[in-house]
Each structure stands twice: as C-alpha cells, then as structure tokens.
Amino acid sequence: MAFNLLKEYPDLLELDYMNERDRNESLRKIFSRDFEKHENKFRGNIIRPIPSKKDKMELLFKHLTTRKIHGRNDRKRAYDRDRAVRLHWVRPHIEENIPDELHIFSVEQKVGSSYSVRTYIYNRKEQYVVILEPFRKTDDYYLITAYYLE
After folding, report:
1. CA distance 75 to 68
2. DSSP readout, 80-110?
3. What is the spatial distance between Cα 129 and Cα 124, in angstroms, rounded to a whole number?
4. Domain carrying residue 85
5. Are 49 and 103 in contact (CB under 8 A)?
6. Which of 2, 15, 30, 41 has the smallest number of CB atoms closer than 10 Å to its CB?
7. CA dihedral 81, 27, 6, 12 (to 10 degrees)
8. CA-based Rg of the chain, rounded to a whole angstrom?
C-alpha cells in the first residue's frame, strides 16, 4: 500500500486489488500527506476544506473519493473508483504544477438558494476537473471537489 504514496501525476493509484479496508487506508495516507499535513495554495491563496458543522476534512475526503448516488434525495455517496485513483492529482492541479495545458475559468452559478462564483481547473487532456469556491471573508478558496469527466 505504501507504493501508492510514490505515485505521481499522471500515474493512477493501484487500488483495484485491495479490499475496502486496505483501499481506505491507502487513500487516507495520500489524503493526509496532500491535505492534512500540507497547506495547499492556488495562485497564492490558501485552500480550505468545505465548510461543515461536522469534520471538515472527513467531508473533503468523501467529496474527493466518492460520488453522490443519482436519484437519491438523502445525500448518500458511494465509492467512486475514477475519483479515488486520481486523489493524488488534486494537489498538482491546484498548484498548476503539471505539464498538461490547464484551462482555468470562473462561472457564477446557483448553489443552493444563492449564487456563487466557482473556479474550475480543467485538464482537457486527462478530462479532469478541480472545483474551487472563493472564501467569503478573505481571498482564500474552498476545495469543493475534483473528478474525472466520463
């Protein structure tokens, strides 16, 4: 499992042969390295986890490794292999430290009952997107999610 800590973009993590416990342990180590023990910045601005009344880092981990089950109103999420095998891609995209061309743009969109500007870091070659939202009180950002486009 420690070999996944050695993986770099654009390699994918090796998770398919692992049972659920080992897979989660491997993903947690990468998440800890890239998000809990490392301060991420996008263009000089600090990246923060999604605001939540619960454990913010746990919520961020779920958003980066699971997807919402379509057709369900209860906000249940399920393991998403495509997100999980690319967990270690988030940080180099935020830092704009990859050789592929990134398209970075912001869009005002309705989020819940209000409007918010979201910034998208889109890698056309790898069909991968990272979504950030500006922090309301400072120039920092929330990391909302990241995923592979199918």
Report:
1. 6
2. -HHHHTTGGGHHHHHTT-SSS-EEEEEEEEE
3. 9
4. 2-148
5. no
6. 2
7. 10
8. 15
- Note the pLDDT tens digit of each residue in 5-31: 999 999 999 999 999 999 999 999 999
Distance of CA 4 to the CA centre of its chain: 17
pLDDT tens per residue, range 70-83: 775 667 899 999 99
Cα angle for residues 134, 145, 91 (degrees, 5° grid): 85
* Domain total in the chain: 1
Instruction: Enter the tokens of residue 55.
Output: 């454990």
pTM to 2 decimals? 0.92
Strand order in the sheet with 45-48: 41-42, 45-48, 141-148, 128-134, 114-123, 102-111
